[in-house]
Design a protein that fits this description.
By secondary structure, this protein is an alpha/beta fold. Helix content is 31%, strand content 16%.
């Protein structure tokens, strides 16, 4: 298998996660009020809330789920840190609760934070260079064919701005959050791991911590496989990226465009160069049996961080690219955030 095929396959990720342009800099602003499906509880137990809001960046309404910690309803003036938890390609806002045992893990570690799980579609959480598909209403989500087009299609594919400006602004206006960078973390799996790293690295004034579970940690990593620190090759010919993968290759080229500079501007392994020690708390993990060889990318990013003197929490061990691995690791990233973010106040 050629190095370009391996790189492209690594980005294809796991469609089974659901089983059935550059980000614009902007201050967070509020949008619409949430529509919660769960009434406030009378007990001190954790609870989940289902909501939706209209994103100006996307020109569309998107759903989200929120896990509220024990005691949230009993302390009406207390404010809480927030962890934004992103899904993978083909997934949605339900995945971490339905398959990732988020609620159980958060309760087990006695997490004192709000967890927000938004719908990120198939966006890689970036502002796409290419326009929205005019035929989206007919084609729908190419990575999740059971999803209704009305739930997927947007007027503008500005998903980086959607998260960093619209979603955060909406959450801060709707829940009792610590609306500061030291009160915000972002994490995700697979595509969402990539989203968490690049959004936090591009916006360190917004996030204090980021975690990647089996993420695309080095967008332009071309080999070798297995990883060798002394033989790393990085892709530069992005115009030919994924041409042997048909529609998926074109999809990725439309997202990031023909200029390698834009790919680098979203590549966690490249963004390391603009981080100063102590700027951002980071967590990385990956399974050594990852189907898409993303453990090679994780090792490369680990080495890049180490060379730059950037402290980070790091785990590489047995596991594949699936919820079997992510369910085992979510406890660790939640503990990481508990130590990296501000405490309730």
């Amino acid at each position: 298998m050629s190095r370009h095929v391996v790189l492209a396959a690594g980005l294809l990720l796991v469609l089974g996660s659901s089983c059935r342009g550059r980000d614009r800099e902007a201050a967070p602003t509020a949008s619409t009020a949430p529509t919660a499906s769960t009434a406030p509880a009378t007990s001190a137990a954790p609870r989940t809330v289902d909501g939706s809001f209209t994103s100006e960046a996307l020109g569309a309404t998107k759903r989200y789920r929120v896990w509220l910690p024990a005691g949230y309803d009993q302390a009406p003036t207390r404010r809480w840190p927030v962890i934004y938890l992103l899904h993978g390609l083909g997934g949605n806002q339900d995945n971490w609760l339905a398959q990732g045992r988020l609620a159980e893990a958060a309760a087990e570690v006695e997490l004192a934070a709000i967890v927000v799980m938004p719908d990120g579609d198939a966006s890689f959480y970036v502002d796409a260079v290419g326009p929205s598909d005019p035929a989206c209403a007919t084609r729908g989500n190419p990575f999740s064919p059971l999803e209704a087009p009305a739930d997927y299609c947007v007027a503008r594919r500005a998903y980086g701005t959607y998260v960093v400006r619209d979603l955060i602004g909406h959450v801060d206006a709707s829940f009792r959050t610590i609306a500061r960078r030291d009160g915000r973390g972002i994490a995700g799996l697979s595509m969402g791991g990539f989203g968490a790293l690049q959004l936090a690295m591009r916006h360190p004034q917004v996030f204090a911590a980021a975690a990647s579970h089996s993420g695309v940690d080095a967008l332009l990593y071309a080999g070798p496989h297995p990883y060798r620190a002394d033989a790393v090759e990085l892709l530069t010919d992005v115009a030919s990226w994924g041409k042997n993968l048909g529609g998926f290759g074109q999809y990725m080229r439309d997202l990031f465009g023909p200029d390698v500079a834009n790919w680098r501007a979203h590549d966690p392994a490249h963004l390391v160069d603009q981080l100063a020690p102590g700027t951002l708390a980071l967590y990385l993990d990956c399974g050594t049996e990852d189907l898409f060889a993303l453990h090679d990318q994780a090792q490369y990013l680990h080495d890049r961080l180490t060379a730059r003197g950037l402290a980070h929490t790091w785990y590489l061990g047995p596991g594949g690219h699936d919820f079997g691995f992510w369910r085992e690791r979510i406890d660790d990233s939640l503990r990481f955030f508990a130590g990296a973010l501000a405490r309730p106040e």
